[in-house]
Amino acid sequence: GAVVSQHPSRVICKSGTSVKIECRSLDFQATTMFWYRQFPKKSLMLMATSNEGSKATYEQGVEKDKFLINHASLTLSTLTVTSAHPEDSSFYICSARTGGNIQYFGAGTRLSVL
Amino acid sequence: DQQVKQNSPSLSVQEGRISILNCDYTNSMFDYFLWYKKYPAEGPTFLISISSIKDKNEDGRFTVFLNKSAKHLSLHIVPSQPGDSAVYFCAAISSAGGTSYGKLTFGQGTILTVHP
Questions:
Q1: How far apart are CA B13 and CA A24, in angstroms?
Q2: pLDDT 10s digit of each residue in chain A, 114 long?
Q3: Separation between Cα atoms, residue A25 and residue A74, nearest integer Å
Q4: Which of B1, B36, B46 is nearest to B112 (CA)?
């Protein structure tokens, strides 16, 4: 299957700082990428759809000023958690679609905000 | 509003036997279904999918069955191996246009444990 790389795999930061997570499609171009969040022992919750060259589409209840998404190229989308707080601690996962219905996922980023 | 449900939080199976994971959905607009396998602290790995125009899709040890009238799908793993132990998520997608286009809706997941 297609390869999606996510970096970093783990980040620990102080409350109030911003954290950037990168998602790259390594062997294909992705006009659309997705960002998910997973709470402990819960399912994956879609946060936003990242569209190359245009604004991201956020799901209901997700603060767009809190979670900034940039999709500047066909192989890279970034999620920036601004002014992170302990409640933002979670597992963040990105995915990309090759053109069909199948989404391929990155390995995820464990964010811990102290 | 849980549109995709996996009612069994966990399943335990003996090595070599069949594992059957179930998934129900409520949204009749879903027309494509996927199964993912996930280990802790990793992203989901795509396993197998099925379009709503089919009722069965097979790939090696994995077979997915779709019953549209019952809005039910299942994943069969035969024979089960200890390395199959993981969390399995079913997901559904609507290919139609509109705000839900292209979005995956996940079930809650089922923890599969295959004992040697």
A1: 37
A2: 688 999 999 999 999 999 999 999 998 888 889 999 998 778 899 999 988 888 899 999 999 999 999 988 889 999 999 999 999 999 999 999 877 888 999 999 999 999
A3: 8
A4: B36
Residues of chain A with Cβ-Cβ distance to B103 below 8 Å are 34, 46, 49
Quote the tokens at residue A67. 């979670």
Set of chain A residues whose Cβ sits within 8 Å of the Cβ of B102: 32, 49, 97, 101
Q: Which of residues 39-98 of A touch B (CB under 8 A)?
A: 42-44, 46, 49, 91, 93, 95, 97
Cα separation, A84 vs A100, in Å, equals 34
Q: Read out DSSP for A36-68?
A: EEE-TTS-EEEEEEEETTS--EEPTT--TTTEE
Tell me the chain A residues in contact with residue B107 when contact means C-beta distances shorter than 8 Å.
43
Q: How far apart are CA A104 and CA B91, in angstroms?
A: 13
Residue B71, pLDDT score: 97
